[in-house]
Amino acid sequence: MRRTLNPGRTVAWIVLIVLMLLTLFPFYWMLRTAFSDNTQLAGNPNSLLPVESTLGAFKRVLGLATVEEAQAQGGSGASVNFWLYLRNSLVVATVTTVCQVFFSAMAAYAFARLRWPGRDKVFAVFLAALMVPPIFTTLPNFVLIKNLGLLNSFAGIILPGAFMTPFAIFFLRQFFLGISRELEEAAMIDGAGHRKIFFGLILPMSAAPITTLAILTYINSWNDYFWPLLVGQQENVRVLTVALGVFRSQTPQGSPDWAGLMAATLIAALPMIILFLAFAKRITNSIGFSGIK
Amino acid sequence: MTLSRRSLLKAGLAGIAATAVAGCNNGAASRGTGEVIYWLWDSAQLPMYAEAAKAFHEQNPQYTVTIEQYGWNDYWSKLVTGFISGTAPDVFTSHSAKYPLFADKGQVLPIDDFVAQDGVDLGIYQQGLADRWVGADGKRYGLPKDWDTEAYFYNSAFTEAAGISTEQLNSMTWNPQDGGTFEEIVRRLTVDAKGRRGDQPGFDKETVKVHGLGFADGGGNDGQTSWSWYAASNGWKYSEGEPWGTRFFYGDPKFTETIAWWRGLITKGYMPTLAQAKSGVDVTATFGAGKYGITPNGSWMMGAYSGLGKVKTKLARLPEGPNGKRMSMMNGLADTIWAGTTRQEAAWAWVKFLGSKQAQDIVAKAGVVFPAVKECMPAATAAFKADGWDITPFLEPVAAGATFAYPASPNAADLTAIMSPAMDSVMAFETDPADLVEANDEVNQVLAAAS
Amino acid sequence: MTATTSAPPGRKRRNLGDLKVALIFLGPATLGFVVFYIWPTLRGAYLSFTQYSLLSPPEFTGLKNYERMIHDGFFWNALVVTVEYVAINIGLQTVLAVLIAMLMYRLTKSITVRAVILLPYLVANVVVALVWYWMLDFQVGIVNQALTWIGIDPVAFFGDSAWAIPTVAGINIWRHMGYTALLVFAGLQTIPPYVYEAAAVDGSTEMKTFWRITLPLLRPVLVMVTVVTIIGSFQIFDTVAVTTQGGPINATRVIYYYIYERAFTRFDFGYASAMAMVLFAILAIVSLLQLRLLRAKESDLS
């Protein structure tokens, strides 16, 4: 497609840029807040630049400030053992994503490309799980993990999401349905079994949706808060979101450490942004090679 | 252990095993019998309790304390999950609004026997505090650790600009008809966009820049930091049979006339509308932005007000009401022991230590909250003074015996669920104060059904 | 259930088909499904017939919880408020997502653009809610400051009953539109270029191509996206919990928040379970209707 700058294209670009600015402004506001002096924030609500700009908030979050300093700056005195929690988050999100996407892809294959009696009914049941309010699952799952002796272990945090989510199966099934049958049948004629078709044909053909799903799964797992809070409170398995929860609500009616909270949020999101940028480049390349556009 | 594993699993899955499982949770297996897990929610208090834990361990080398802190919202949901699954902490900080239900459900350990056995002197605490932790069943569930009352926080730059003296601020009167000198001061502190004060000609209540009085919300069922002292000094009380109310009086004329006056301040422009008040950050941050002259609040908030960089804050006494008194609610926290703990001895030793003068001295010196032990108050007063606070307005109601208790009830959550929308609806002018009779009937129905 | 693939004619075999292979492929997922979804749901269904305070054993009470629901004004209010939220949220979000996906597809392959669009989704729900809560504050929020600068009166976004639900919906649209756009984008990428080339040869205009070709070919993905987002938005909770807590008065007491309140602050878990069952039923019906109406069969390509 050749790019010419006709009026329609210009308008389209303007719309896209406006949408991107709307998307970005709150992030600017987070940055501006994170670099501000927390005690001065309330007094200068409409300053577009950081108020009395300081690195104090980042120091507080990373534990580089003493408790006294942190409290004097309107912080909580709690800090984050950043590198340890980062490692834990990486472990949890990576294992969850790999297992969940792979097992879900297997199931989706069975639902989309295999023929067996009762398939659609079983799929409907799986799909219905999408509608199960989490309020049902959290408590029994917690008790189960506890009785399995998996509290405060990576296994306990990862297990409920490791095998499938209804969404992942549904998502991949829809894409697997779209793959043309001729290719599959040609492979069959060549004597390929289901394993070969799955690994050699379906998975590579679905590289784009699978990576999309993997990214989304990774983000979700990274941002998950309540479950790891319940199951993994000990230092050695505590993930970033749980650690940052300390900043969120402090005293029953206290005014929060806004600067610290924003700094913490940015710090928690940063690894994701870096990963995403690094990863996304490779994805588009691989899509380009496989010829699916 | 192997025998019960399977049945425990089953029972646990059925979710009915809160107490049965309690005896053998995983956390318990991996730690010694002298190791106490202690929870609190206020991060500002973490350093002082860490210090207390150190002192405790030095005196009792057989015991150690691990402190865990979770924010207010996570704290309670995690605690309940802990009760159900048998992973709750041995000792935890508790609140008047929450413990009656936990006690009612058998989740908190009565400590009467321990108190009797060790001869704990309950007379060292501020008047009435220890009894706050005697439940509806007559059993004692905790030793008090701190207490709080209410006062007005005011922006001293604004009061000076308005020509209001400290004496005037500390001798305010109030009544539900014209609001007394209190309303006069609030009126004077209100400033519109053109700089005209509430008591000056041409004042435009539609374009108010600074509201005289801070407003958070309708106050729910307790009104602790919003209307409780007006209503109390108007001769109203929450319920029959206090402190364990059996029939509430939210429909009482004394209460409705108080609320009608209070909401009148919105009409006059001295207080923002409910929509504005509930639209964003809390009262304290808004006060910090220089949008309020006076905000009422609890003593535990002094740290937050100290942290407001731009605004200089001072304290004023609550007004003298129709009954001739300056009334304030007095409430406090206590440390309670989980009924399912396998470390009762160690847990009690820690609770006893936290309620002792030695631990409360540490609390006092930190200058965050008021210690429950009377003798420790001078140290706390000094600590607050060092931070620039004269805390007399908080102490006076206690000295004068003009305090009343938080309306505790095992059904507190239901009362809040009914009263919060009802009060907000009145303050939003969607219903009238007289309509609170209906909400009150609902409250009493819930109580009748529960008993 | 109509979400089926039609088996190609001529290959019909009246036996177990690929059942053996299917069992292997389904094995791990089924294990997770039964243990972490089916079992808790059955237990929840049972609890909906009990009075259960979480802290003492459940007592069987038959249909009492369901009867209570009929007379519970809060419940009905919660349903209405939730539907209002879902309508605003899904309507705007889907349109915006398709728009963004199309723009990205037609204008640029830039990774940066894609990353920017997905950025809000990288931030946890609760923090997103907090940031907006602060930006939209009536007195000190930057949005209202900006409105004042251009001569508009400040708006009580969270405090005004009429504004509260649209505001909460807006925040979630901000966070999720990039995510949804990316799903749609993934769908766009699977449409073979020759289809467009053929359309161009036929002299089809841009708009015509979109309505006649792109949208129909996107159908399987769009169905999946709307089913998933509708189910998700019926369960809106975090944003309300952080910002309005159901207020002002009852304006944002959405169904999931009300269920949560009943279960964990009022310890009325049996009643909460009954409401969750009703929510479950509603979602099942809505999704079924959706799948039927939109006929989420195979893509029109095959």
UniProtKB/TrEMBL annotation, chain A:
A Pfam entry, by short name: BPD_transp_1
Membrane topology: Multi-pass membrane protein
Subcellular location: Cell membrane
GO cellular component, one term: plasma membrane
Boundaries of every ABC transmembrane type-1 domain copy: 86-279
One of the GO biological process terms: transmembrane transport
Transmembrane portions of the chain: 12-31, 90-111, 123-145, 157-176, 197-219, 258-280
Entry superkingdom: Bacteria
Keywords, in A-Z order: Cell membrane, Membrane, Transmembrane, Transmembrane helix, Transport
Similarity comment: Belongs to the binding-protein-dependent transport system permease family.
Record protein name field: Carbohydrate ABC transporter membrane protein 2 (CUT1 family)
Originating species: Kribbella amoyensis
From TrEMBL, chain B:
PANTHER family: ARABINOSE-BINDING PROTEIN-RELATED, SN-GLYCEROL-3-PHOSPHATE-BINDING PERIPLASMIC PROTEIN UGPB
Protein name: Carbohydrate ABC transporter substrate-binding protein (CUT1 family)
Gene Ontology CC terms, in alphabetical order: cell envelope
Signal peptide: 1-22
Main location: other
Localisation: Cell envelope
Keyword tags: Signal, Transport
InterPro entries: Bact_solute-bd_prot1, SBP, TAT_signal
Organism classification: Bacteria, Bacillati, Actinomycetota, Actinomycetes, Propionibacteriales
Alphabetical list of Pfam families matching this protein: SBP_bac_8
Superkingdom, natural source: Bacteria
Family: Belongs to the bacterial solute-binding protein 1 family.
Automatic annotation (TrEMBL), chain C:
Subcellular location: Cell membrane
Transmembrane segments: 21-39, 74-103, 115-135, 155-174, 217-237, 269-289
Keyword Transport set for record: yes
GO biological process, one term: transmembrane transport
The organism's place on the tree of life at top rank: Bacteria
Domain ABC transmembrane type-1: 79-290
Gene3D superfamilies: MetI-like
Name recorded for this polypeptide: Carbohydrate ABC transporter membrane protein 1 (CUT1 family)
UniProt record similarity statement: Belongs to the binding-protein-dependent transport system permease family.
Membrane topology recorded in Swiss-Prot or TrEMBL: Multi-pass membrane protein
GO cellular component terms given for this protein: plasma membrane
Coiled coil: none
Species, as recorded: Kribbella amoyensis
Keywords: Cell membrane, Membrane, Transmembrane, Transmembrane helix, Transport
